[in-house]
Amino acid sequence: MYITREQAASAIMDMRDFYSSLKEVYASSGMNIEDDLGRRNILMSGPQEHFFAAQIRSNFPQTYNNGKTGEPDIVIPELSKHLECKLTTRHRSGALSFQSDSMTFEGHPDGVDFLYVIADDAFENFSVLHFEGLVRDDFHAESSGSRGKVRMKKHVAMSKCNVLLGEVIDRRDEFIDRY
To answer: Is the separation of the CB atoms in 148 and 142 below 8 Å?
Structure first.
């Protein structure tokens, strides 16, 4: 593993500071960034890549983040690793959606690493999940109209997950206990 719990916590603190400034910019123009959490997450995805790459760079100095469409979010040349970064928030139903672009896996037979940051609505509480070596079979088939997006098969992929911050609760266990 090339990123630690402490590094994840530091990157999250940097993201929170950045978000606080961004929220003020929105407010100064009479807008509320939290009115559309999907758009908020899009705006914060670049800072996520930047701050996590900076933390990884402390151990692997050649690490860089690209941000260009079709390119890996973070590249760690010393380890020949590519890290895809995703920022998500719970849906109104309480569900979490871990997605990827289907073409992310092309040319990566050994899999792709993912860093999913889950933020609450107020951008104050977080979980950070680091998946190593996810392959296309760890995701569902493309749905019609999904524009190339695929959903993670959580029951399959969680075996490849390192929980850096927060906790993972298998809701199936909760349902079994309830019944």
So the answer is: yes
Residue 116: the pLDDT is 96
pLDDT number for residue 93 = 72
| C-alpha closest to that of 150 among 105, 83, 90, 91 | 105
Scan for tokens 């400034």, then name that residue.
Answer: 21
pLDDT digits (tens, 9 = 90+) for 46-60: 999 999 999 999 999
Taking the C-alpha atoms of residue 174 and residue 153, their distance in angstroms, rounded to an integer, is 19
Predicted confidence (pLDDT) at residue 13 exceeds the cutoff of 90: yes
**Buried residues in 155-173 as b, exposed as e (16+ CB within 10 A):** eebbebbbebbeeeeeeee
Q: Interior CA angle at 173 toward 171 and 176, to 5°?
A: 115
Tell me how many degrees the CA angle 41-45-47 measures, rounded to the nearest 5.
120
- Which residues lie below 8 Å from residue 177, measured CB to CB, with a gap of 6+? none
Distance CA 43, CA 163 (A): 24
170: Cα separation from own chain's centroid = 19
pTM comes to: 0.90
